[in-house]
Amino acid sequence: MLSIVGLIFNTVGSVILAIALNQTTKMLNISITALEHFKDTFLSGGDVVSFGGLDKHRKSTLKNAKWLTNIGLILLVVGFILQLISPLFE
């Protein structure tokens, strides 16, 4: 029974880690795309479009991803420990 609970914890922890990684990757993609667009328009001599609010978006995304990562890692460790001790309680 403990091994099943450990497996569920590991699965939920992995999904939470994937969500956190997805949020971070989206944020980095948006930042890099904005920077690339700024660079291209600046070098071509066109009108430079200024993107505002990226720093606020980056801070909130990283804070949320850090929180989710901590929860996911804790669930993975607890699930691993439960699977390790499950043979002792059979």
Calculate Rg over CA atoms: 21 Å
**Can you count the beta strands?**
0
What would you call the structural class? mainly alpha
Question: Major beta sheet, specifics?
Answer: none
Provide a count of the helices.
Answer: 2
Overall pLDDT, averaged? Answer: 87
Query: CA-to-CA gap between the ends?
Result: 8 Å
**Beta-strand level of the residues, as a percent range?**
under 5%
* Molecular shape: rod-shaped
Low-confidence stretches: none
Multimerization state: single chain
How many structural units, i.e. domains? 1
Order of helices and strands: HH
Helicity level, as a percent range?
over 70%
Would you kindly provide a written description of the structure presented here, covering whatever features stand out?
This protein is mainly α and 90 residues long. The longest helix is centred in the N-terminal third of the chain and has 43 residues, at 2-44. Helix 1 packs antiparallel against helix 2 (54-85). 83% of the residues lie in helices and 0% in strands.
